[in-house]
Amino acid sequence: RVVVCTRGNSEGAASVGAEEALGLGRKLASSLGTRLCWLVWGPLSDAEAEKAGSFGVDDIDRISIETQESGVRIIDKTGALHNPADRDHCIQYMVAVALIKGNLTAEDYEDDVAADPRIDALRDKMQVNENERFSEDYLDPHKRSIANAVQVFFADGTKTDRIEVDYPMGHRRRRGEGIPLLNAKFERNIATRLNLAQCERIFSVCNDQAQLESTPVDEFIGMWVV
Question: Whole-model pTM?
Fold first, then answer.
């Protein structure tokens, strides 16, 4: 059974167990007090679904997205999306997948994921607008923020908090948080092509700056040969 959104108390919401959605869920929930809006789309047992009280896409009235002028100009895209390049330049697609899954990966731009009808159903409910402060901070050389905000409005009149993030993961101001995730991504992806011994050797060299710098180029390239 697929649950789009669950409503209940914090204990009930936590029982869903969708770890990838917890961060977004915590932020989006607070405005409803004990009636937490927990955006979780994932398989639940019948007992969990009954406890959570699920509802679907049709219960969402609209989704407001605020971004910078560059975001509006480059990635505010409506209508048909024909390929992965089209989708990764569509802020509505990115937000829809993130709400469905709780995260967004490169694979989510492929045709099999895009075939999910819930994505376009959510895109049709989205309104994208420029936030002038976001645009100013985006161009400010002392900030270079990449700010965005999102808020979900439901058909029953309830709504989530307006969630604003000025510096997303990957921004230079969040390097301490981002580097471990980058390392994990590197390890995860290299393991899809190389054997364990190669991966361990490459990880060891790359994690030691002095060793990396002293390794001959031809030797380093040789580590990557399949």
Answer: 0.70
